[in-house]
Design goal:
- The protein is α/β, with parallel strands linked by helices.
- The radius of gyration is 23 Å and the shape is elongated.
- It has eleven helices and 14 strands.
- The chain has helices at 2-15, 53-65, 83-95, 112-120, 148-165, 185-201, 215-226, 240-252, 275-282, 297-308, 352-356; strands at residues 41-47, 72-78, 100-103, 125-128, 142-145, 174-179, 204-210, 234-237, 267-272, 288-291, 316-318, 323-325, 332-336, 342-349.
- Residues 51-52, 54-55, 129-130, 146, 184, 186, 213, 239, 271-272, 292 line the site of beta-D-galactofuranose.
- Beta-D-galactofuranose (GZL) binds at residues 51-52, 54-55, 129-130, 146, 184, 186, 213, 239, 271-272, 292.
Length: 360
């Protein structure tokens, strides 16, 4: 409501030749500053759900940042991994006339209509984590998240270098890809990295099935695939929780989980580098863990502060991310980036000290 009164006041002042640039009555451009009379900024955050350790860390970062003590009112909604719940949440945020909407989209498509409603209401939308695929990118003000294609490229370049160092040829890598939620940017990018490597290095990709980024589904998929193939020696899990489930299934099936493919072990690779995921690297259950950093709270706050100050913000902001392995067989990799080109990434060998210094 406050924005409507403010817009009418501004238009009135413009009519007296005091100011220019007032949008149509009741609307303000979606990038303009806002804030209530007492300075509190109201943020509506539509979160995917609570499907993984990564998501828990992401929610914690957002709630710690957008606290009352920091001058915010956070309206938080957990969509339980359902897009229709996120769309409902965004409409509720619009009804409540929040100052900013932050959306962590469960999948990339299906957002044009509701983001147009937010734009028409003059509420800036910041996309966090996964990306949205919309017909008009003015429907959101900024995006901050990971380069998921680069994550996939990193992991697969590491696997190629590791296998080569161990004397295992590409055709002797028999791989299961337990994918993330189909249509999520993280799944799209990590799967694309795998698909390109299979073609480039002649790997034997046995199965690709979604584990929905959860431990239960990851275990279920692994159990099912183990019944169909007896030569699996690499399991490419598109997040840590799927890896936890896959490891349980492999162990229950009497498999030896580890990096020694040449001697019959089954290698498990993962993404996220959560605390539990890195502990599994330390225990040599996960051989490579490619980081996907969830600590987006401060990054989103920086965008909001710039908008409040009337400053320009980058449309896309990729976060820097590391790689963690059981050993230094591979010291660095050259990975392909979403924006084009390649970049070198060093591999960190996981120790207790490395884990103790991690922020999540
Ligand atoms: C990645 C994020 C993914 C994580 C999973 O940024 O979208 O969703 O990799 C999480 O753990 O469920």
């Amino acid at each position: 409501m406050k924005k409507k009164i403010l817009s009418l006041m501004l238009c009135g002042m413009m009519a007296m030749g005091v100011m220019a640039g007032c949008g149509s009555a009741g609307k303000k451009s979606a990038d303009k500053k806002s804030g209530s009379k007492d300075g509190t900024i109201t943020v509506g955050f539509s979160q995917v759900g609570a499907e993984s350790d990564w998501r828990t860390a992401n929610t914690k970062s957002m709630k710690e940042t957008f606290s009352e003590a920091n001058g915010y009112k956070l309206i938080f909604d957990d969509a339980q991994q359902k897009q229709e719940n996120q769309i409902t949440a965004i409409r509720n945020f619009i009804q409540q006339d929040v100052d900013y909407i932050v959306l962590a989209p469960v999948t990339e498509t299906g957002w044009d209509t509701v983001l147009k409603e937010a734009k028409d209401a003059g509420i800036p939308v910041i996309i966090v984590d996964r990306m949205v695929d919309v017909s008009d990118d003015s429907l959101y003000t900024a995006w901050v998240g990971s380069d998921f294609y680069a994550e996939g490229s990193k992991a697969c370049e590491w696997l190629n270098a590791y296998a080569t160092a161990k004397g295992v040829s590409g055709k002797d890598l028999h791989i299961v890809d337990i994918q993330g939620t189909i249509g999520a940017s993280a799944q799209i990018g990590r799967t694309k990295g795998m698909d390109e490597a299979v073609k480039a290095y002649g790997w034997d990709l046995l199965e690709q099935q979604t584990g929905e980024f959860t431990q239960a589904k990851g275990q279920e998929v692994m159990e099912s695939v183990l019944k169909q193939h007896d030569n699996i020696n690499v399991v490419y899990c598109e997040n840590d929780n799927e890896a936890f489930g896959a490891i349980d299934a492999l162990t229950a099936a009497g498999k030896k989980v580890g990096g020694d493919i040449a001697n019959g072990e089954v290698m498990v690779m993962s993404f996220d580098s959560t605390n539990a995921g890195l502990k599994d690297v330390l225990d040599k259950k996960i051989t490579l863990n490619t980081e996907c950093n969830p600590l987006h709270g401060p990054r989103v706050e920086e965008i909001i502060k710039k908008l409040e100050a009337g400053d320009k913000v980058d449309k896309l902001q990729y976060v820097d991310e590391a790689m963690f392995a059981v050993d230094d067989t591979v010291k660095s990799v050259k990975a392909k980036m979403s924006a084009g080109g390649e970049k070198d990434f060093d591999i960190t060998v996981v120790t207790d000290d490395v884990i103790s210094k991690r922020a999540y």
